[in-house]
Design brief:
It is a single chain. The protein is an all-alpha fold and 163 residues long. It has a single domain, classed as Globin-like, CATH 1.10.490. It is built from seven helices and no strands. The longest helix is centred in the last third of the chain and has 35 residues. It is globular and about 45 Å long.
């Protein structure tokens, strides 16, 4: 199953994702940051994302409550990780454009990995549709958390004036 093949190649995906961020002019901060900071959250997020694909592949009609609960838990995990990622990217000086570009790179690399390892065009299309939905949700959650962090940063008084 494609979800399992994607999960097995997570390190390959992370390496390509980090390399592309470092070389992208829209993400200038990435050039100087250590790899662990750049890949922060990605391993957890992608692992759970691919696990959701595995669950979906194995439970086409989702009549089993256990699988449905797995998907709900995965969705919560993905949202939490995406929110933490947006806040962290704000803290390290990413711009909104850089965050958006980072998700574009991630989307492109996930799709390229799926294309390299899909056994049939139907499996690829099905998987890409689900991955696109999950990645869009994560982008939106991350972007919202980034915006929240930016607003809080503008309204907080400097530490020297707080009483």
């Amino acid at each position: 199953m494609l979800g399992e093949r994607l999960r097995e190649r997570l390190e390959e995906l992370i390496a390509r994702y980090v390399t592309r961020m470092r070389n992208d002019p829209a993400i200038p901060r990435a050039r100087d940051l250590p790899r662990p900071l750049l890949e922060d959250h990605a391993m957890s997020f992608l692992s759970d994302l691919f696990q959701s694909i595995v669950v979906l592949e194995k439970t086409e009609n989702l009549k089993n409550a256990d699988e449905s609960d797995l998907l709900k838990d995965g969705s919560r995990i993905q949202r939490l990780v995406a929110e933490l990622h947006g806040r962290q990217r704000h803290r390290i000086g990413w711009t909104e454009e850089a965050l958006h570009r980072e998700y574009q790179i991630l989307d492109e690399e996930v799709a390229a990995l799926a294309k390299r390892h899909a056994s049939t065009p139907d499996a690829l299309d099905w998987t890409l549709d689900h991955l696109k939905h999950l990645l869009t949700r994560a982008h939106d959650a991350s972007y919202a958390a980034y915006g929240d962090a930016a607003r809080v940063g503008r309204t907080q008084k400097p530490a020297t004036t707080q009483g």
